[in-house]
Automatic annotation (TrEMBL):
GO term, biological process aspect, one: histidyl-tRNA aminoacylation
Alphabetical list of Pfam families matching this protein: tRNA-synt_His
Molecular-function GO term, any one: histidine-tRNA ligase activity
Gene Ontology, cellular component aspect: cytoplasm
SUPFAM superfamilies (alphabetical): Class II aaRS and biotin synthetases
Name of this protein: Histidine--tRNA ligase
Binding-site residues, L-histidine: E35, V36, T37, Q76, E80, R214, Y218, Y219
Organism domain of life: Archaea
InterPro entries to which the protein is assigned, alphabetical: aa-tRNA-synth_II/BPL/LPL, HisRS-like_core, HisRS/HisZ
Length: 344
C-alpha cells in the first residue's frame, strides 16, 4: 500500500485511475499496489542507494483489468537495474528478460523496442509542444490525429514513418537521414544497444517499433514490450525511468527494468500443452535408527539432480529406498550401489 498522490505522479492518471483506493484515518488517500517500480524508486531514495540490481516476484491489484483476462489480482516477476551506462544497462535487462522466458520454455518470445526520448527529440526538433496529443495519436496509429497537431509536412512524414516501420537498426538510420542529424545522440545509443544485444546473442529477437508505447508516465527513454506468437497480450515489458529517480531526489541516478506477467506466462505455457502437475511421485527415502543423516545426504544428492524426494523414518513401507548400512530398493529388495552413503 502507498500514497495515491505519489503513485499517480509516477505512473500517470490513466494507470492510477485503475487502482483500488482507500482512505486512512487522517483522510489521506492510499492505494493498493498496482505496480512495483515506483515503490522501488522510493525505497532507493530513502536509503540513498543509487546503484544496485534488484528482482522481485509479487502480487499486484488493479480495479480495471488491463489484459482482458478477467483478473484483478495478478502476479509479476521483475528486475530493476539502477546505475550504469544507459545502453549497457538496457541491453542487460532486455537480454535477462529473454533468458528468463527461455528458461521456462517460452523460447520464441520477441521484443519490440520504442523510445519516448526519440519522440521528445522529434517534437523539439519541429517545435511541437503537444507531447500528450502526439502520444495518443501514436497509440492509435492515426495520421489524421497527427495532422490535427501539426501541418508541417516534414513532421508528418517523420511521425508517419515512426508509427509504420518495424525493423532493425536501419529504422534509426533512415530517421536520422530524415532529421539531418544524429537524433540528439539517439542514433549512437541504438547502435550501441544492438551491438551489445548481438553480444548477448539475442539481437535477432529484438525489433525497433517506434509505435511501441506503455501506459506508465515514468518512462523517459527506451520502452519495450515482450510478445509471443499466438498470445494476444504482451508477456511483459519495461523501459528506462531516469526521470522518476530524479523526482525522488536521486538526481544523477539512472534506472531501467522490466516486469513479466506470471499469469500470462502460465497461459502461454498451457497453450503449448505444458504440464504443471508432474505425474512422477516423489521418492520416499526411509531410514533405520541411526541413519537419518545418511538419508538426508542421499536426498540432497538426488534433489541436486532434479529428483523430487522426501525423508522419513522407516515404518514398513514397500516402495522407495531404505537407508541403513547400505541403500535398499524396497520395491525390488535389491541393494543399490550409490557409494559414499556410509553408515552411522
Amino acid at each position: 500500500m502507498d500514497f495515491f498522490d505519489i503513485i499517480k505522479e509516477g505512473t500517470g492518471e490513466g494507470f492510477a485511475d485503475s487502482l483500488f483506493k482507500v482512505q486512512d484515518s487522517d483522510g489521506k488517500l492510499l492505494t493498493l499496489r498496482g505496480e512495483v517500480t515506483t515503490q522501488i524508486a522510493r525505497m532507493l531514495a530513502s536509503r540513498a542507494r543509487d546503484e544496485t540490481r534488484l528482482f522481485y516476484i509479487t502480487n499486484c491489484v488493479k480495479y480495471i483489468d488491463s489484459d482482458a483476462s478477467g483478473q484483478r489480482e495478478y502476479w509479476q516477476a521483475g528486475a530493476e537495474l539502477i546505475g550504469g551506462d544507459a545502453a549497457s544497462s538496457d541491453a542487460e535487462v532486455i537480454a535477462l528478460a529473454l533468458s528468463i522466458l527461455d528458461s521456462i520454455g517460452l523460447k520464441a518470445a520477441q521484443i519490440d523496442v520504442g523510445s519516448v526520448g526519440l519522440f521528445r527529440y522529434v517534437l523539439d526538433y519541429f517545435g511541437i509542444s503537444d507531447f500528450e496529443g502526439v502520444i495518443r495519436a501514436v497509440k492509435r496509429k492515426s495520421v489524421d490525429d497527427l495532422r490535427g497537431i501539426s501541418m508541417n509536412p516534414r513532421a508528418l512524414e517523420m511521425f508517419t514513418y515512426m508509427i509504420s516501420r518495424r525493423g532493425g537498426i536501419e529504422v534509426i538510420d533512415k530517421l536520422s537521414e530524415m532529421a539531418d542529424g544524429d537524433l540528439g545522440g539517439q542514433k549512437g545509443y541504438f547502435r550501441k544497444l544492438f551491438r551489445l544485444l548481438d553480444a548477448y546473442g539475442c539481437a535477432g529477437r529484438v525489433k525497433i517499433d517506434l509505435g511501441t508505447l506503455r501506459e506508465m508516465k515514468y518512462y523517459n527513454g527506451i520502452i519495450f514490450e515482450i510478445f509471443l506468437g499466438g498470445i494476444g497480450t504482451p508477456l511483459g515489458g519495461g523501459g528506462r525511468y531516469d526521470a522518476m529517480m530524479k523526482e525522488f531526489g536521486l538526481e544523477e541516478s539512472r534506472a531501467t527494468g522490466f516486469a513479466i506477467s506470471v499469469d500470462t506466462c502460465i497461459r502461454a505455457l498451457e497453450s503449448c500443452n505444458f504440464s504443471f502437475n508432474s505425474k512422477e511421485k516423489p521418492l520416499g527415502i526411509f531410514f533405520l535408527e541411526g541413519y537419518e543423516e545418511a538419508a538426508i545426504a542421499l536426498a540432497n544428492r538426488l534433489r541436486a539432480g532434479g529428483k523430487g524426494c522426501y525423508v522419513s523414518a522407516y515404518n514398513g513401507e514397500r516402495e522407495g529406498v531404505l537407508v541403513s548400512e547400505g541403500v535398499l530398493d524396497l520395491s525390488t529388495g535389491k541393494e543399490m550401489q550409490l557409494g559414499g552413503m556410509g553408515g552411522r
